[in-house]
Amino acid sequence: MNTKLTVLTQWIQTSGLDAALITAPDNVFYLSGFLSDPHERLLALAVFPKAEPILVCPKMETEDAKRSGWTGEIIGYTDIEDPWEEIKQAVDRRSVNVKRLAIEKEHLNVERLEKVQMIFSVPELVAAEEKLRELRMVKTEDEMAKIREACRLADYAIEIGVSEIKEGKTEMEILAAIEYEMKKAGVQDMSFSTMVLTGANAASPHGTPGSTKVKRGDFVLFDLGVVYEGYCSDITRTVAYGDISDKQREIYETVLKAEEAAIAASKPGVSCAEIDLTARNIIRDKGYGEYFPHRLGHGLGISVHEFPSLTETNPLLLKPGMVYTIEPGIYVPNVAGVRIEDDIYVTETGAEVLTKYPKTLQIIK
Q: Which keywords accompany this UniProt record (predicted)?
């Protein structure tokens, strides 16, 4: 049994639980090492205090599960078989009387909840989310090796994007060049839909790339991430094409100052709220507070958005091993949109910046 699964098993025992049923694919991957996108099909991991755990997946993926390193029991089911009945039989074989069951309450839908209650005779349900978040927030050395490589590839993707900036090129043309080169580099998936936004579009924090063309005097904003062996990176850079106004420059320098201050403040024992406010107050003091409408950052790992959440009200204290983004932005309609984002690893003494692409204002001539 791997270390992560051992820790969860110990939690089940010390919490007086009889079992845990994990169904979110990210958490199944975290605990089992098996990465799968089952679509509408059931993917699950049943964990018991003393009995052998069970991995449940579509039958066509059972060999993939074995290759991933899973050595426990696998229930593989076809599209005409009922996986819930298979789970019930496997639990019965273990002679486990489940009265208190941990589930992911935020993930399990009503239909599947009814199945769970049928199998386990309406047990007491306990939320597993808090424990899983606690485990996933602190990364292992193996996880960090994967995240570092994902960050290296993200830096390369930004480099490609910047090299593609030319007057008259559309956002989608630049985006396509980035993702084509990523595929050539062996990247199977991006962390999320790549964003290339220019001109007025850059002032929309979650804008959609389209046919807008690059023109002189505009910012070009890149927000992208790469998945490497199941782990995500997330980076944002904003560059200028041609000369920009003093107002645009002020906005850029304010965002950069806020980001650098938040990175410097990142160290064990500091709260997420304090990190957020370190950046937010710099932006507020410059008069742009209303144009920074989102949190400062979010945890990063198997999911591109996970815990911790860096908001100005989150009292959670940073710990060594946490990985998160710092991404302040200022979005002034019809003036400028600037965001700068890095991936941060908390060490015993401070912050290690995992994304390396330069942040000094870059003006493409």
A: Hydrolase, Manganese, Metal-binding
